[in-house]
Amino acid sequence: MHYPLNTPLGRMGVQTLEEGPVRCVASIPVGGLLNPLTQAPTLAPLAMLVDHVGGLANHYRRGDDEWTVSSELAIELTPHALELALAAPEVPVVATAAPFGPKGTGSLSLSELTHGDQVIGTATVRSFHIHTPGHVVVWPSDSTEGTPPATLKDRMSVEVAETGGRAAVLRQLPDPVINNSIGVVHGGISAAALELVGSAALSDGTGVPWRTASLRVNYLRQFRGGDESRYEARALRTGRSSGVADAQAIGDDGAVALVARLTAYR
């Protein structure tokens, strides 16, 4: 399924290839996309793919009067994931998700990420089942002509606020196109932005690239774009071969909406 460009999935180039209660499959392009803070190639869009396909697998388990919202997202990547994506930028990454364990307070899905015939990672998404909100917006089903914006920052509606040293900040601009069906920033967009600032916070000016190994995100409350809405990250450790950064999304009200920890190696 192709999504219109005036939806977050269409803006990010996500395509759903298969969906159902047993298995959901989707893809996303990652070739040629750069971290706006560092101008380095990035796999941050995989967070968008994982949140969509893993959340979709959990969504199929909802009751008639239920909706689902992500509560946790985790991604583990192989050491050569970025190199494979760079070697064949025209090949999208495909995620295959399935329910994992029984439905519960935090229903869990498990995904496998592949690039061509190579497995490059695994991921999990936990979802809360909530009573259907009265303000759910149904995304358009028509196909909008054209292609997504060329740069990742334009696809995600973010702008650089601060970079350098051991801190990095991206502003989340208000843009209804990147909102989910309940009117807040899509969880995949937010998770991808946390990866971007986390990676940038580890940048130490040596020119030796970091490769993201794991990203774990907790969704604490709703997050909306606004004048003060932002993603911030600080490096906790930058060693010779490993680095760890903590990141958070902060809303206009100053409250922390999401938190994440990123681990990277080189």
From TrEMBL:
EC nos: 3.1.2.-
Keywords for this protein: Hydrolase
Transmembrane segments: none
CDD domains xref list: PaaI_thioesterase (cd03443)
Stored InterPro entries: ACOT13, HotDog_dom_sf, PAAI_dom, Thioestr_dom
Signal sequence segment: none
Domain Thioesterase: residue ranges: 183-255
MF-aspect GO terms: hydrolase activity
UniProt superkingdom: Bacteria
NCBIfam families registered for this protein in UniProt: unchar_dom_1
Family: Belongs to the thioesterase PaaI family.
PANTHER family according to UniProt: ACYL-COENZYME A THIOESTERASE 13, THIOESTERASE SUPERFAMILY MEMBER-RELATED
Protein name in the entry: PaaI family thioesterase
Originating species: Mycolicibacterium porcinum
